[in-house]
Structure formats: C-alpha cells, structure tokens
UniProtKB/TrEMBL annotation:
Cited SMART domains: EAL (SM00052)
Pfam families reported in the protein's UniProt record: EAL
Domain EAL: start-end pairs: 21-274
Listed name of the protein: EAL domain-containing protein
Classification lineage: Bacteria, Pseudomonadati, Pseudomonadota, Betaproteobacteria, Burkholderiales
C-alpha cells in the first residue's frame, strides 16, 4: 500500500470491534461505518473510455450492508435524515469511508475518485465547504489531488449558491465535477466555473450535434465530459454517433458497462479484456 499513514490507521482499526468505534473493518478488510442503525460501506463504479475500455476514474457510492436495508443508497438516507447536522454527518462519514476503501486497494493506482455532494449539503454547511474533508484526507495521508467532488444539478435561482460552494471547495484543494441537466445549462457554466468535468445523462441526448459541439468545446478547454447512466443500448448508440462526429474519446459510466463493486480488481480485469479484444 503506497499510503503509510492509511496503512497504520487500518492496522489500528483491525484491532477494534464494532462496539468500540464508529468506523471498523470487516473480515474482508473493508471499512464500515454506522449511521443510526444502518451499517454503511463503499461500492465503486468505473468511468471508462467507450472505445478502448480504458479506466479513467471511479465513482464512490454508499451502500448499506444491513440485511434489513440491503442496497440502500446514500441519497435515500440523506432524504430521511432529520436535520441538516445529521445530513452533514452522514455525508462526511461516507466520503471518509469511500476514501479509505478506495486508496487501500492497490488497483486504485493513479485513477481519480469521484464523490457526490448531495444538494441538501449545499445549504446545510454554513461556510468553508470541504474544509472538514480536506482535514480528514490530510490526517490519513491521502492525495487530495486525486479527489473530484461532484456537485448536483441546481435550479437557476441557486446559481449564486453553486458559485459560492465551488469557490470554497477549490480553496480547499478539490477539483470539481458538475452535474447538469442539458448542454445549454453546461455551456452557461463553462467559463464561469471551469470545472474539471461536466456530467450529462447519457439517456437524455436529444440533440446529438449540440452534444458533439459541446464535447469538442470542452476538450479544447481541457474539461472532461462524462456521460452518466449509460444503461441502455439506445444510449450507447447515441454516444457512438457523438464519438463519430467529434473523433474524440467519449467517457461514460453506467450499468451497461459496469455494476458498482466493492473491489476494484474486477474493473481492472474488464479494462484489460477490452484492450485485448
């Protein structure tokens, strides 16, 4: 493991029981955490180049390991959190678990880790967004430059809030990906926010020529476009047409390519198989 501080932290966790800490290790070495009566861990879904299968990054997703709530997502837990303070606590717990569970695996290598920011968190944190997580990463000796925080889609009247939050995260050393509902919305943010990446829904590409023009524009500006929710053959065909128009690699993520998995090794094996095909 190339992160000695994290290695020492995991060694200490391995001697602690579930009753003795809010974060502990299971028999497979995964970090688990508790939120109310739910036990949480991490799953990771790859972001890939479509044509080559090359792994670009992974998105960390919170999953329940409780028998009663198997597969419960972070968003559902946040939706049911009773207060803003509880939603902030859950968000920080999940980010910490994802960082631990990602970087403890040798297969993480140089891949980036994308982590969601729930829309409730934009207004729940009063100031200095990202400072608490930045301190956690520093304490664990983990590379903040490998983290990309995904900001949610916002309404037009929340533009000021997105600007404020994005500025705070940047000041704390994070790169940003922004979820957008359309190419038109993303174009309006491109110069103003200049994120590391935009994320568009692969199942909602009504104007493929406009999408292709946007991909070309972002490529010139060194901004990645990631097509999320690639779940159907029709969406794949649309992205292949966009790729043909632009002549550029298209990065996508979805169940048509990969299911979220705890271990990164399977995704690496799939990438190798795609490259050899």
């Amino acid at each position: 493991m190339p992160f000695p501080v994290l290695k020492n932290y995991l060694a200490r966790l391995s001697h602690q029981t579930q009753a003795g800490t809010s974060v502990w290790l299971d028999g497979e070495g995964r970090a688990l955490g508790r939120f109310f009566n739910c036990t949480m861990t991490s799953a990771f879904q790859p972001l890939r180049e479509l044509e080559s299968g090359k792994l670009v990054a992974f998105e960390g997703l919170a999953r329940s390991v409780s028998k009663a709530d198997e597969g419960l997502s972070l968003w559902r837990l946040l939706d049911h959190a009773a207060s803003d303070d509880e939603s902030v606590e859950l968000d920080r717990l999940c980010r910490m678990l994802h960082a631990i569970n990602f970087f403890r695996q040798a297969e993480a290598e140089q891949a980036d880790l994308y982590l969601n920011v729930h829309d409730r968190l934009l207004s729940a944190v009063s100031s200095n967004h990202g400072h608490a997580f930045q301190r956690i990463l520093d304490a664990l000796g983990l590379p903040i430059e490998r983290i990309v925080l995904q900001l949610p889609t916002v309404t037009p009247n929340q533009g000021w809030l997105l600007n404020y939050v994005a500025d705070n995260y940047r000041r704390n050393g994070f790169r940003l990906a922004i979820n957008v509902a359309s190419v038109h919305e993303a174009t309006g943010m491109l110069e103003r926010l200049h994120p590391h990446a935009f994320k568009l829904d692969a199942g909602n590409l009504s104007d493929e020529q406009a999408v292709a023009s946007f991909v070309t524009l972002c490529h010139a500006a060194k901004i990645r476009v990631v097509f999320k929710r690639l779940d159907t053959p029709a969406a794949l065909a649309a992205l292949q047409r966009v790729a043909a128009i632009t002549g550029l690699p298209i990065v996508a993520q979805g169940y048509l390519l990969d299911k979220p998995l705890t271990a990164l090794a399977q995704a690496k094996q799939d990438a190798a198989a795609s490259a050899a095909a």
